[in-house]
Records
---
Amino acid sequence: MPSILFSIENDIAVLTLNRPDKLNSFNREMALLLQHHLDECSASPAVRAVYITGAGKGFSAGQDLSEVADPEGPGMISILHEHYNPIVTKIRNLPKPVVAAVNGVAAGAGANIALCCDVILAASSSQFIQAFSRIGLIPDSGGTYLLPRLIGWQKASALMMLGDRLSAAEAERLGLLYKVFPDESFGEESMKIARTLARMPTKGLAYTKRALNASFTNSFEQQLQEEDRLQYAASHTLDFKEGVAAFLEKRPPIFRGE
Ligand code: LHQ
């Protein structure tokens, strides 16, 4: 079985991290395959939303530690430069909404890959662990950038230093994720949200994502200029035309992502 299952259904690319015996922890093969599929999602007009989840009981336990211990393994610098940094950069730059459907434990780089998705959903029994400090590492995969921005400096700092397990309910309360659903209905409810996203004005969502990415470092004035540019581009899409026409004609819009 491939370490990432990939399918496209109803304009949604479903990427399932698939090393369930190892809690879907990442080895080199899986990290490179995920990048390959993210590129495919980015380029394919058949994909209007991406849904990332885990096979079995976990989402991902981050780096496969047996690969780190292997003297023949890729080594720390390659793991960062060739595995995690490109993965999170590709997700942030992917011009379509990316849903993290966190079905179980998300630890280390597994947690931080989820954090960089556009809509983070979690099953009620899932947990988030900044596991890095437990093995003497620092949080990577963009975690030190994103987590303090999501939940504030102090909570991020404590979670990263203590490596505590954060329940899905607590993660939702802190603002780390969008919604929690009961385990039994998680697949269905999270896919419903992906389906909604896949029917929305795809280009408008891509521009929204670009504006949010830029907002991390821009001044207010720079951000207003970015909004001007992106709003101008959005106003030239067919979906904008359709959205206005449908409103005036009092009918539901049919967006084609064009
Ligand atoms: C695993 C793993 C795993 C291998 C569970 N590897 N087998 C970047 C730069 C370079 C180097 C290092 O890494 C990074 C980024 C990182 O991600 S660093 C953080 C790496 N991840 C961790 O330290 C987490 C390690 N895992 C755990 O602490 C626990 O497994 C958690 C708390 C995630 C889940 O606990 P449980 O639900 O009790 O599951 P389990 O521990 O029983 O795991 C199930 C199986 O999966 C087990 O195998 P076994 O053969 O005994 O059934 C684990 O050995 C295996 N597994 N995580 N990261």
Note: The first helix runs from residue 28 to 43.
---
Amino acid sequence: EQGILRYRGIPIEELAEKSTFVETAYLIIYGHLPDRNELKNFSDLLTEHQNIHEDMKYHFEGFPSTSHPMAILSAMINASGCFDLTLMKGGCSSQFDSHVAQLISQVRTIAAFSYRKSHGLPIIYPKKAYKYTANFLHMLFSQPYEDYELKPEVVRALDLIFLLHADHEQNCSTATVRMVASSQANLYASCAAGVCALWGPLHGGANQAVVEMLVDIHKSGDDGSKFITAAKDKNSGKKLMGFGHRVYKNYDPRAKIIKKACDEVLGSLDINDPLLEIAKKLEEAALRDSYFVERKLYPNVDFYSGIIMRALGIPVEMFTVIFAIGRMPGWIANYKEIADDTKSRISRPRQVYMGEPLNTYVPMSKRK
Ligand code: ACO
């Protein structure tokens, strides 16, 4: 009701201002802010594991260029488990720290490679000298003959997006990861399942759906008012994407931070995106409209994040992939909680069957 989000007790606003994605990932997975040594070791492990096995490159060739990068991401996370047999075992082994770093680091490499492949571009390898988010941008946008120019405000904006997505209690994908982990499936298999759950437009896929909605509104010449009317009509099949949340019945605190960052990034890159104006108008109109007020529907994290990502040059089909990279620490921490718990039991929801309790097999010739 109050719109509060904290990671391990630290307000999201404080982390957004002072921390980085890598430090926050450590906080979420290991339960405390790392000291200097712990952070260095964690960063070194991420760098050590940044390359994927060279043979994995050939797997990318098998996907049609029209593949959605979320499909490639989930398949390749699972496939990478095959290249390191120590990953196959469920639970938290002595190599768990290395597996964690491998997953966080390589999910970014896989994501960048899938983008390059689907656009017919040559793969760009990570650079040891670059930090986490800068390295991702380098792999996405550099060319073999020319390095991408890393602007600090762009790197910071993307790092902030990763950080704001890092964990969010028992949402659909995190609950999925826990469900799979409860069978003692390995970390990679569990997180690959999380990617699939995140993909849908009612969950992480909403960031893509928001921008597609804004583009449609812009193309139609509507200032947003016609769309608001349609979103209130249950028969229209339309929803105001990026609005509403199962838990927040108030402004999502991440949306507040992202909205401010959106203004700052677009300002400093001197970008005038008409979609930002439409989004602001939609928000204003919705927050005044009794339909949205009575149902406590406010902007969620996805409402403005897509506009920032567009400004950074990230294609719309990669938006949910960015969410998945950011959410990895939360999934891993939830996996660890299950794996560390010696009393953990397999998740097994009960079913209340509503059909015939007993029936006989009817031969085909006698069926109506
Ligand atoms: N636009 C229009 N009406 C909406 C919206 C919306 N975005 N969201 C909810 N409503 C309406 C519902 O139709 C329902 O109306 P009713 O009471 O007249 O039947 C009422 O508000 C309550 O909505 P529920 O669907 O019960 O809310 P629920 O908690 O099940 O769903 C959800 C939450 C999925 C986020 C929903 O608000 C939604 O679909 N939003 C748009 C998609 C979106 O932005 N998803 C991202 C969520 S954040 C995240 O996953 C990272």
Note: The longest helix spans residues 96-118.
